[in-house]
Amino acid sequence: MRNAGQHQHRASRMPSLAALASAVVLVSAAMVVHAQAQTFTVLYTFTNTAQGWQPEAAPILDSSGNLYGTTLFGGTAGGFGTVFRLDTKGNESVLYSFSGTPDGEDPDGSLVADRSGNLYGNSLYGGTAGGYGTAFKLDHSGKLTLLHSFASNPDGADPHGSLIGDPQGNGYGTTQYGGAAGGFGTVFKVNATGEAVLYSFAGTPDGENPEAGLIRDRAGNLYGTTVYGGTGGGFGTVFKLDPTGKLTLLHSFAGTPDGENPYAGLVGDSAGNGYGTTKYGGAAGGFGTVFKLDRTGKFTLLHSFAGTPDGENPVAGLVTDPAGNIYGTTFYGGTFGYGSVFEIDTTGKFTVLHSFNDSPDGANPMGGLTRDAAGNLYGTTSDGGDLSCGFSGCGTVFKVTP
N or C: which end of the chain has fewer CB within 10 A? Predict the structure, then answer.
């Protein structure tokens, strides 16, 4: 098991993206506004190891409003993490506790559900093939089915991001390491019959170490990011992988002004634009960026983080609403230094919806947000909350109404 303090990241769905060029349009950072009408609610505070602790991904919602998520650590089977359910009354139940072998260890991505309500996800480590992680299915009864144990070469190692499905029931994801081209990570497909490697990264020029999930268009093309590699100094890439396995480099980050190290994946809007974040770089001190790639191939810098009061080091993906507003989180920064929830509207105005204060609301959100039909946003913090929990707090589940 890796160091419990080791913070690494994760990722939604884009209708379409044309082949993207590398033109950069610099947009000056908008005035930071503190929203007045939003409400913030702590839905649940993790307090002991049996419940699970350190949730690092956005929860998902079912049609009744129940939330489902993962914790990196804790549970009742050795402390290797959990899948949990949070009902509409705030009651938490552990649906599954990981034991390391054979099922997996340290799930840190969001779950995905099929029409029958089965849950699918990845674990970073564990499994039956050297401890390089697993892909799993969890049914209504709490029975876990091991879909794949990663073996590093050639299939990959350490799947950080979430899975995304297609209409045929296949799941697609990435591994941070491993593969058949130097150990720089893979894109894979998994289903009930096994796993297939769709692409192995080579570092240059294609990219290195993808840590986020993918998005898929109607034609079956997959889009994602790598944290490192590329042609812009090794600061990461945005890529497209077509159904034949051909990879197209859509953008290589250069650090300034566009950003560096995109730990998160992309999210799309109804017009086919893609949006993402970088943890570092930008034009305001190197605290990270929010960017847009439009259908014509233009790269636009939407915001450069300055640390205070807007936030610092976003490591999670974004979510959009039908009006085209963008919402996200930062791991550090904000008014108190423990991270923030933010909105960028269609005019480019940046608004801080909440600044975390460690206790009681939580600290350091590593996951993104999930939006319901009413516009409420749900997320988790990896730390903070009940500080008597030990470590730096066990984390929280929260709700924001913009």
Answer: N
